[in-house]
Each structure stands twice: as structure tokens, then as C-alpha cells.
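Archive entry: two folds, one per protein. Generate the first.
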Amino acid sequence: MERLLAGRHSGVAFDLDAAGPRIEQFSGPGYRGCRLTGEIDFMSSGMVQSTLLSMVLPGGGAVVVDLSRITFLDSSGLGVLVQAHRTATERDTRLLVVASEPVRKVLRLTGLDTVLETYDDLPAAEAALSD
């Protein structure tokens, strides 16, 4: 595991599978977050699901999933997002998704853009939290 400090957010980054996405957990004003870089597919979706579900704690709050650096998302990745959304709803937690253009395209094609709370960038998601 590699520890790092990045700008205004500090967190722990780990690369469990070189072929899978890089995941960095961080926190911001009033939320927990994770930033993923790379591709989310069948091979990496389990790791991503474990990370997201561990962040959605009972009792409310907010989780920001930053997918702005994701270049590919298959149906397994969509399933992970749907499960995270369901779990967040059950636990009274707000789930916000920051989506790259490739991710936004898949969300639009599947209609999930109307289900998930999505934003173009992290500052927009943070601003929505203060509304």
C-alpha cells in the first residue's frame, strides 16, 4: 500500500491489480470519497464494489465517487454503481458520482443518468453538497 498526500485531500492509494483501476480514498468537506483511475470491467469490479460498499456507512452522510479519470466502464461497472446506489439509499447516505465523458455516455445510454446523482467535476459535486 502506498500512502500519499495530494493537494487539499489526503488519502490512501492502492493498486491491488495493475490491470484494474487505481483507487484513492479521500475526504472533503462533509463527505467521504474515492477517486478511480483507469478501467472498470469484470476483472476489477469486485475490488471497486468492495471499496464503495465499505464507504457507504449506516446513518447518513455523503459519498462522492470520482470517476472523472475512468476511461472504460462495462456492464459489471454499471452493476457496481447500481448496487452502491441501492446500498446508499438503504443506509440513508447520499451518493454523488463525478463522471468522465466515457462514463457519462454509458450512463446516458442505459438511463442510469436519471437514477444516479451525477456531476461533471468534483467542485460541482462539492457545491451540490452545500445546497
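Generate the second and append.
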Amino acid sequence: MAMVGHVAQAACTDAAAPGVQWRRCLLDSADLTGADLTGADLRDAGFKRADLTGANLGRAQARRAKFVSALMRATDLSHADLIQADLTSADLTGAKLIGASLRAARLFQANLRDADLTDAVLDGADLLRTDFSGARWVDGRTICAEGSIGRCHPAPGNADGKVAG
């Protein structure tokens, strides 16, 4: 870790840890299975084809980060800042995106099967061919039906049959 003035600057080779500073780091194809990256600074970082299965990225700052084709099954992204992040073809099966900000994020062909999107913000997000089958929608009540591609279609048995958000 280098000292610049009185502020510590982390190197891209620093170990995965809560609050790690990996801004603009390239971690393509990295194995970060189960890593605790709570509150990490991941802005503009690259995680293409990385394995983040079961990792905790809660409250991470990941604006403009690239998670293209990343394996993110059961990853916790609760309250993460994913504005303009690229999650093209990412596998987010069973991921927690509770309260995450995905404004203008690219989720083209992403797999969000069984993910929890309660209170997530999707304004301006590219959802083309995104699989929401079995996902809990942003309203926290609606479960998306099997075959919900590009948008959430309420599963039979949802209380009001409407999708909020």
C-alpha cells in the first residue's frame, strides 16, 4: 500500500477485504469466490469472466465496473452502487440486489433467475434478454414467472397480478 500525502492508496494486488480500494483495477478472470468486498471501491474496475460466486459486495461502489460474463451466483450486492455498470451475460442466479442502484446499467442477456431485486433502482437499465424467471421484483412482493425475459411477468398466484416499477 503506497502513501500519497496522508491518504493510503491500495494497489490492485491487495488482497480481497472489506473496503479494499480497487478503483480502475483489472481483475479479469479472478477467482473471488466467497470474498468479502463489503464497501469496496470498485469504480471503473474490470471483472470480466471473474468468479464472484457467494461474494459479498454489499454497499460496494462499483460505478462503471465491468462484470461481463462474470459468475456471480448467490452474490450479495445489497445497496451496491452499480450505476452504469456492465453486467452483460453475467450469471446472477440467486443474487441479492436489495436496494442496489442499477441506473443505466447494462444487463443484456444477464441471468437474474431467483435473484432478489427488492427496492433496486433499474431506471434506464438495459434489460434486453435479461432472464428474471423466479426473481423477486423491485416491489418486494411480485415473483416473476418462468420465461420472464426482458421484464418481469407476475407468476400465477401473485396477490394483485400487477408488477410495480
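Annotation attached to the second fold: The CA atoms of residues 83 and 102 lie 5 Å apart. Confidence is low (pLDDT under 50) at residues 1-8.
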